[in-house]
Amino acid sequence: MFWACLRFPGLAFSAAFAAAPEAGPSALLDQQARQRLIALPNAEAAAQGVRRGQSLAAARALCPSLAVRPRDRDAEAGLLAELAAWCYQFSGHVSLVPSQAILMEVGASLRLFDGWPKLIAQLKHGLSEQGHAHTIAATPFPAASWVFAASADGMALPDVDGVRRMLGALPLARSGLPASTVTSLQAMGFRRLEEVFHLPRPELTRRIGRQGVGWLDRLRGEAPTALPAWQPPASFRQTIEFDGELDGSQPLLFPLRRLTRSLANQLAARDGGVQRFTLTLEHARGESTRIVVAMAAPQREAERLFELARTRLERTTLPEPARSLELHADELPVFRPPMRDLFEPIKGDGLDWTTLDERLRARLGDAALKQIELVADHRPERASRYGTPTAKVPPPPQRRPLWLLRRPEPLRHEPAVLLSGPERIESGWWDEDDIRRDYYIVRTPQGQRAWAYRSPEAQSWMLHGWFA
Q1: Of 173, 219, 244, 373, which has the fewest CB atoms closer than 10 Å, so is most exposed?
Q2: Are the C-beta atoms of 227 and 93 separated by less than 8 Å?
């Protein structure tokens, strides 16, 4: 097996500042401390002297523009699950590591992606597009991959002996052992893992305990590592809360893009699509605005989901500024792409009908578009009506024209040829609009194909529709 580990050093900031496109100098606050202390500064804040453990007042004195958020462990877990869903397209076994990392077995995927260099290129490109800082390493041992991902980004070492040699050269501070254990070993004169590996096992157990020895065994692949497989949930619900109130649709676009991308990642993991989801905006006085985004067919592309949601949002007038945005989708059906020919010719850049229909309804509203649907009535004038574009319309009956006149009118010339007929339609006695007609498909002297009828009482021809 070949395990790749993805570490996300900026995950805590991405989760806490989900609604802000660019945070600038920022830091996370320690919620467990009694005082407001800095738990983690970003690189820009650290460059101005902000350090972990500082009081917020001292940090603000060094960096007046410092943006702070409380660290949200639940949001971090949710974001890590979102990234696991995205990783599902590269591996069938994805496992979450509590320390902001993901492990996935990629040995079975190397042939599919044409080798590790192309696979890691796709991983790095996709994560960079989503704005996540990351490091990646891959070895036959999950624990070793986790350790190397912190110090050797991009490393891939399938050779077991080579992994063990590199582990021996690691400083104790990068071994993954608890800090207290590392301090104790350094006080004894040990500096690298190789020196610890040479100790007799009873002596090593006495010095670092069974848990420490078990970790070293997992590093070298001498003990199994239990990695429960992560499974994507059957529904989607995610909320982004804002620090302040956002007024208008433009400031909401960044959190909306984050939510639709999260939904697309989960859909990719489930090999599913979504045909309907709901946006809910909470306001200051407890009111909420619900925006339903419905599509003609299930979709799962992030850009299309964002475009449709954005158009709906821009058409909605908010009663007051929003304090949070939630995206909720209950049904995630299996995604079935349209059937295509093996040697399908290259299409132009024009929109297909489904995409055009979705964009028009999102921009103009559901009531602005209508389509013809059939009604269970034999009388041609009453056999169709206008319905919603989402309705599934059965195919029209054979031998009926698509162009039906609003009301029948006399045929100017006698038909040149009777192509088919008669077809007797006798109906409507129950609502006092009874008809008795014999319909024919005829060709006029001008060569047109028409749908005309004669009633038994009158022998004159009446034109009711044209065939294309």
Answers
A1: 244
A2: yes
